[in-house]
Amino acid sequence: MEYVNPLTGFRVDGRRPNEMRQLKGEVGVVARADGSALFEMGNTRVIAAVYGPREVQNKGQQVNSKDALVRCEYRMADFSTGDRRRKPKGDRRSTEISLVIRQTMEASILTHLMPRSQIDIFVQVLQADGGTRAACINAATLALADAGIPMRDIVTSCSAGYLCSTPLLDLNYIEDSAGGPDVTVGFLTKMDKVTLLQMDAKLPMDTFETVMDLAIEGCKAIANYIREVLLENTRRLECQRG
Amino acid sequence: MRDLQLSLNQTQRVRLEAALHELQTVAPAAAVTVADTIPVNDEDNILKGHGTSDQDGEVVATLCGVVERVNKLVYVRTLRARYKPEVGDIIVGRVIEIAPKRWRLEINFSQDAVLMLSSMNLPDGIQRRRTAVDELNMRTIFEENDVICAEVRGFQHDGSLHLQARSQKYGKLERGQLLVVPAYLVKRRKQHFHHLEQYDVDLILGCNGFIWVGEHVVVGENANMMENKLNLSAEVENFTPLETRKHICRLANAVRVLSALGFTLTVELIIETAEASVSSNIEINNMLGAEFYVQTAEREVKRRADLLRKKSGAR
């Protein structure tokens, strides 16, 4: 199958190799949560809710009393994929992605400002079309900012791949299923630091640098968009407050 | 729109969007988002306050909010966030646990607040030391899920937040409704207790966003109530007149409408909204309908425009 048209340079969904899918972010979608966000990257749709900082519910999990405890729960809705498979709640992939999201957000949250408290992040994939964990991290960032939790920087995430000798940005499901390498990067834009780096399948070292740079460019673009969404929301709240 | 789960028809949607758009035209304040750089004069010795951090010598916001400058202090006033206690704040909380010598209250803070047995007035009003019998009888004073009004006392050395309820006006709240709104909608004022005489209703605007609308209670009545407690039956004690109940529901719905639209909650605005629903012959349940939302938004736009015109005229 031709994932990149050799004549025109377009991908199967009409994008160029360095083009991102359509982004859409919305905050305040869950009424009862302290912070919530809906984030779409193309056909991938993710909803995130943040509760807290609140009292630690299980004191045994509190490692130390100087930092806030960050917990994350990731779930894919049964209807989010083409195949309807009922997965148990604690399956291996969900546990791994929950840990990944928690570690990524922990790097950004200023936990020392909220001692003896707990921050719960719930992320649910409503529609999956590739790049789900990147979308989950972006949704969690929006939800945390909506909840007023202090953060060092906006964490954004983007995936990139390498097919038909071409680096591709923001893979969709078809490209993800092609079996090529898939690099996911979590990035702090202002601090210029990487908080997450995952890759599957093999990739030469020099090509890996190119693909990773492309993913970082994608993260910067997403950060600009997220910043616009948050700024517009803040202005609206302030104007309505009066 | 956060809590607005309304089914607006086309006309109402256009009117609501026009009203909210009118509010946006007022000069927006210096809004910042996470990781934005706040411009400061490097020559001054700037104090970095809440919501800011130092990154490579420049002041960076850690929250989404509005930049405020007070002399040399620069801080970010956050909007949607949990309540930040200050000493002397009047708050409303809900008891979630009874521990030895203390109650734990949920007050929309990152930790539970603690009300010590020694920090509150006993029901009989006698000033004396607390004994073991008092500790055993703590559940008769406040039990789980009771709503309590108290004052922030401060943070103790172990980092926990302590409350106190040393006046007759504090204590258990009964025969009313508890509403939870975002804390940024309640501004700090000198007066947070309001007795609305025309409705015979007490309104308490807690600084933490918990708002109590309940039947009026005469302060100092507790001492007499203890004597009469044996004579009154439970039914008579809990009875509230229908008219007062309607007033409570109408005021509570006014608070719900204003908080859903994101307007600052003041007692004048709440009363004005409740009376607008009366004058428009809107039923109490229809106050949460789409039409009244749009009317409230339009009225608020007009009120702020009038306020702005007065300021311009005075200048």
CATH superfamily of chain A: GHMP Kinase, N-terminal domain
Rg over C-alpha atoms of chain A, rounded to the nearest angstrom: 18 Å
Quaternary structure classification? heterodimer
Tally of discrete structural domains of chain A = 1
H/E element order of chain A: EEEEHEHEEHEEH
Specify Rg of chain B, calculated over alpha carbons.
23 Å
Question: How many angstroms separate the termini of chain A?
Answer: 58 Å
Profile the largest sheet of chain A.
Answer: 5 strands, mixed
Mean pLDDT of chain A: 88
Using DSSP, what is the number of strands of chain A?
9
Shape category of chain B: flat
- The level of helicity of chain B is 25-40%
Q: What's the helical proportion of residues of chain A? A: 25-40%
**Which structural class fits the helix and strand makeup of chain A?**
alpha+beta
Question: What series of H and E elements makes up the topology of chain B?
Answer: HEEEEEEEEEEHHEEEEEEEHHHHH
Number of strands of chain B: 17
Mean pLDDT of chain B: 83
Name the poorly predicted regions of chain B. Answer: none
GO biological process, one term (chain B): U4 snRNA 3'-end processing
Subcellular location (chain B): Nucleus
Main location (chain B): nucleus
InterPro entries (chain B): Exosome_RNA_bind1/RRP40/RRP4, KH_dom_type_1, KH_dom_type_1_sf, NA-bd_OB-fold, S1_domain, S1_RRP4
